[in-house]
Amino acid sequence: MISDFPFAKFENSSVEFYDGQAVKLPKEYRRKSNFSLLHNFYSNLLLNKPVEIEIGEDPLGFHFFQYDYICIIGIVCQTQRRSKFNSLKKKYPLNQFSTEFLKHRIIEEHKLANHKEHIPINVVSQNLHEIRGLNAKVTSNVDVLLNFEDEATWEDKFDSANVNLKKIYVASRLTKFILDNTKFYDPDFWDTLELNKERFFVIHRCVNKIVKIYRNDFKLEKPDLEFTGNSYRKLAGDKEYFEVLIKILVENAYKYSPYKKLGPKIKIVENDKRVNIEAHSYGQIIPNEDRQHIFTKGFRSSVNKGKAEGTGMGLHNAKRLVEKFGGSIQYECNPIKSEQDIELGWNIFKLEFLNTYSPQKNAFA
Amino acid sequence: MREFFIKREPLEPLTQNEFNKMKFLARVAFIDDEEVPHVARLQKDGYNIVHFPDIENIDDFVRKEYHVVILDIQGIGQHLSPNQEGWGVLKYLKDECPHIVVIMFTGADWSITEYKDLADRADAFIGKDLEFLDFKSKLDAGIRQAFSNDYHFNIAKSKIISEISNTTSIEEVKRIVNNYGANENKALRLIKKHIKNPDTLKTIGQLLTILNGIRKLKTGL
Prior knowledge:
The structure holds two protein chains of two kinds. Chain A is of the alpha+beta class. Chain A folds into three domains: 107 residues; 72 residues; 173 residues, Histidine kinase-like ATPase, C-terminal domain (Heat Shock Protein 90, 2-Layer Sandwich). Chain A contains twelve helices and twelve strands. A five-stranded mixed β-sheet of chain A has the order 7-9-10-12-11. The two termini of chain B are 35 Å apart. Chain B is built from eleven helices and five strands. Chain A: Its EC number is 2.7.13.3.
């Protein structure tokens, strides 16, 4: 166990006293003459594992805080007798805390010890790193088996590829999207993200790829995803971030399409250099008062909160991403009918890119 | 003799068709201590890419004059920089041979954050979990840089700027390199009219050698 505060613990049927990481154990606890006194006292005390925080004074005059199996010791609190308090405070000024503060901290340390709310970030990072590495192996090996020569071939032949290979491909791509999500929580991510505008990719192929991934995911009984329109115009930037952007829209469109007969729709509309990509989902219309907040970090519309799990980060990230590509995102709706004060219709998220490039555009053009 | 009467011997940038052929001539080193199926696939497609589990001897490695080096981070650079691993190799390459295009092959963004200053010196990053076609596209972009006159001129420029303060001279150097660079001696003679500093001339001489190496690859197609 690791604690910021000194603590007592049963170890090999004996009571042991430890330093905290931030606060040291008073030296009286290590004095041989105090051993039997403290051992008897804490042996009895540690047999209890109180479900509420218990606070008391030990034979040395220090306070202890006990909660479940955690017992913080060597604390100086103002509730002690004034003369005792003054002498201990003078001797151990760094061991002095308010009762309320320590009550809060012992609960936090209990959660930490039980991994209920906190897992050390280095453990998470290392595990994610290893998962990403292994997922890379899956991706590259399935690519060898699928053996598509180029993106155009991928687009034409993916549907007719071996079903099991497609499943492995889709699983590895969905895993990648999950792992990519952690990037967006880095506080510096948006400030430091610079897209390589010397790279170009075909808009239609990216959208089609994400559509195919979600059509082939592992969910049963899901509505059909309709994909119409095309644009083989190109956009400048890193394709993998554009895929994340489209993934957010397609995933949301599926998530908020509760009616099997009215499935989500993805549309591409090209008009000269302008390309729009629309994601439509039929369901409860987002209320007027929520619309101005839907791209705000962490915001979830009242109509969606109870229907599907979410973090409120998807649309916020989509807006940040689309801006990096020089485009914009808007919400529109097409109300169809009202049922018992619930307005139903199409929720539409529309991406707009005004400066796209001809299909012939490449890094030399 | 006035430059007006001197026959131009320009260094032309590659066309798309030339690049599509030349990319297979680029020498690419891939350094990773793990098996990566993309490499075998690239070799099958005709790329001149060699996979090393680590760099045993950095001087030998540098002498092979790779155009592009793709570097893993963890588990490599054990002989050169056991603490910084791939980042240490990147630092060495960018200090000693800045004209090599170095692409970091990484799966961990947090390691980029930790080594941000070094990461800025890399030419590009390839995520470990990229699909083959995306991987290939990023490698092609790296090869394009390695065959780009502007890329090499900009590297030399940063060194020249530290040696001379006259920005007009740099523009003049660029113009001469572009118009006469295909003949190294002629280009250097013309540049000497504007720049006298021997260190700067040495840098420009190295630049012309690199650019002509690319040109010779092209003429050998």
